[in-house]
Amino acid sequence: MRWTKSIPNMFTQGNLYCGFLSIGFAANGQFNNAAILILIGMMLDSMDGRLARMLKADSQLGKELDSLADVVTFGVAPSFLMYYTYFYQFGLLGLAVAGLFPLFGAYRLARFNIGSPKQSTSYFIGVPITAAGGILALLTLFGNHIPQIITTVIFTALCFLMISKLRIPSLKEVPLPKYGTIVTLFLGCLLFIIYRGTYSSFPYLIYIATPIYIAYLAYRFVKRGKQSKQQ
């Protein structure tokens, strides 16, 4: 069916919408919610490319849309979160420093997009903006237990690591049972939110995204098992 071709793009736009909501929650002082929304964006981002390959719906439009969504959700949203939680005390200078993160991230994405199509899928050149934004979200979520100087150092290091030439192992070739990093982090953070008693104010998007992602992982696991038996 033709409509199935648009499913991956819907997940990509969901990723972008999570970034927008994260910025709004951060501006309203709901930092835990803002961080969790970035992690939900990670879930959706991990699904769109795989769904595109499953449905044979790869397109140039989808690739460009994915990059634009990543800049917002894993570049702009984490930088606003860092500003409102850490850098606000430095005034305009803090805002300028926080704004460096999406600049480095956008450059990293552009460099990736024009890279050779023969580039190895076993590693990335530089830290992906998705991982960098997710790390900042986790640092903010558990910020009460981490000294601000450590967060600042990690923030600065991630900016430069994104545009570095370091080879970062990719999870694309890792079997799905081991590809639980994102869902593990997400569920851990969800339990943290419930433990702190803030779940009542959390956006209902979490109750939609979580079962969809778990169902998707289960489907991939079953499909991989069948393929292994056939081989």
From TrEMBL:
Leading EC class: transferase
Keyword Membrane: yes
Molecular-function annotations in GO: CDP-diacylglycerol-serine O-phosphatidyltransferase activity
Membrane-crossing residue ranges in chain numbering: 20-44, 90-110, 122-143, 149-167, 179-198, 204-222
Reaction(s) this enzyme catalyzes, per UniProt: a CDP-1,2-diacyl-sn-glycerol + L-serine = a 1,2-diacyl-sn-glycero-3-phospho-L-serine + CMP + H(+)
GO BP terms: phospholipid biosynthetic process
Protein EC: 2.7.8.8
Record carries keyword Transferase: yes
One term under GO cellular component: endomembrane system
Subcellular location: Endomembrane system
Keywords: Lipid biosynthesis, Lipid metabolism, Membrane, Phospholipid biosynthesis, Phospholipid metabolism, Transferase, Transmembrane, Transmembrane helix
InterPro entries tied to this protein: CDP-alcohol_PTase-I (IPR050324), CDP-diaglyc--ser_O-PTrfase (IPR004533), CDP-OH_P_trans (IPR000462), CDP-OH_PTrfase_TM_dom (IPR043130), CDP_ALCOHOL_P_TRANSF_CS (IPR048254)
Topology term for the membrane: Multi-pass membrane protein
Superkingdom field: Bacteria
PANTHER family tied to this protein: CDP-DIACYLGLYCEROL--GLYCEROL-3-PHOSPHATE 3-PHOSPHATIDYLTRANSFERASE-RELATED, CDP-DIACYLGLYCEROL--SERINE O-PHOSPHATIDYLTRANSFERASE
Protein family per UniProt: Belongs to the CDP-alcohol phosphatidyltransferase class-I family.
NCBIfam families: pssA
Protein name: CDP-diacylglycerol--serine O-phosphatidyltransferase
Protein's organism: Halalkalibacter oceani
